[in-house]
Amino acid sequence: MAMNLQQGGGGRGRRRRGRGGGAAMSEINVTPLVDVMLVLLIIFMVTAPMLTAGVPIDLPDSKAEALKEEPHEITVSMDGQGRVFLDDQELAPGELADRLAGIEKGEKAPLVTLRADRSLDYGRVIAVMGELNAAGFKSISLVTNGSVAAP
Strands 145-146, 61-62: parallel, antiparallel or unpaired by DSSP? Predict the structure, then answer.
């Protein structure tokens, strides 16, 4: 139901505009929405690389250049107590070979990144590398922290 308000005795119908007027605003201001989305995008872009490693490990320092991430990559991690993780799942002792055998290799085996704590014995790290090699994974990358001066 529409209503026509008249002022004074002029007989002309006038509609009041602006704040408090009866007309509904039919436009949506998307600027705040775009601002919020851009801030969320920046937050996700900054935090996404930090989410790749779920096992806390004190990595050794090195001057080596960073490798490019590959889409089909397997991460094997060893923490300070010598526990072995495949991606983020902890494995029982001796379970690594069985789990590696279950991974489909295709025509080219995926890249394996080995993250080992700096406090581990060298022999334990080499033993895991030997299991990876025996399972058919010949391309193994050792992950380190990048630093300006190597120890």
Answer: parallel
User: What are 67-122's pLDDT values in tens digits?
Assistant: 666 667 888 888 888 888 888 888 888 888 888 888 777 777 778 888 888 888 88
Q: How many domains, the chain?
A: 1
Give the bridge partners for 142, in sequence order: 114
Q: Classify strands 84-86 and 73-78 as parallel, antiparallel or unpaired.
A: antiparallel
Number of neighbouring beta carbons within 10 Å of residue 86: 17
- The three-state secondary structure class of 127 is helix
φ, ψ dihedrals at 145, nearest 5°: -85, 140
Say if 6 falls within a structural domain.
Answer: no
In the structure encoding, which two tokens stand for residue 34, read together? 């775009």
92 within domain boundaries: yes
Cα torsion for 48, 54, 56, 58, to the nearest 10°?
A: -60
Rounded Cα gap, residues 33 and 36, in angstroms = 5
What CATH number corresponds to the domain at position 124?
3.30.420.270
Q: What is the pTM of this model?
A: 0.54
